């Protein structure tokens, strides 16, 4: 029986405007470039990074499902190995 693989993803951050206000958009992206999760903050600092990482690491196998409008939800990936 094979070992379960560990998900590989990276953390990206970019400066954006949301409703005209500057924000930092933290993104977890998998090795295929798919968006797994995101988090917008006013600050780009260690506290913001830790908050996002704690949220993203709760379930690293979850995929972000983007639906119409701003509605998003996380779903379980069926691609576990």
Topology of this protein?
Elements: E1 9-18, E2 21-30, E3 35-41, H1 46-57, E4 62-66, E5 72-76
Antiparallel strand pairs: 1-2, 2-3, 4-5
Short synopsis of the structure:
By secondary structure, the protein is mainly beta. It has one helix at residues 46-57; strands spanning 9-18, 21-30, 35-41, 62-66, 72-76. A three-stranded antiparallel β-sheet has the order 1-2-3, with helices on one face. A two-stranded antiparallel ribbon has the order 4-5.
Molecular structure report:
This is DDE domain-containing protein. InterPro entries: DDE_dom. The chain is mainly β and 81 residues long. The protein has one domain. 15% of the residues lie in helices and 46% in strands. The chain is built from one helix and five strands, in the order βββαββ. The protein has a three-stranded antiparallel beta sheet with strand order 1-2-3, with helices on one face. A hairpin with a 4-residue loop joins β2 and β3. The radius of gyration is 14 Å and the shape is globular. The N and C termini lie close together (11 Å).
């Amino acid at each position: 029986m094979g070992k379960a693989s560990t998900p590989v993803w990276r953390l990206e951050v970019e400066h954006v405007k949301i409703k005209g206000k500057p924000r930092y958009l933290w993104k977890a992206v998998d090795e295929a470039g798919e968006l797994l999760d995101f988090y917008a903050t006013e600050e780009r600092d260690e506290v913001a990074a830790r908050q996002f990482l704690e949220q993203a690491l709760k379930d690293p196998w979850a995929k972000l499902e983007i639906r119409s409008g701003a509605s998003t939800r996380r779903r379980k990936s069926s691609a576990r190995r």
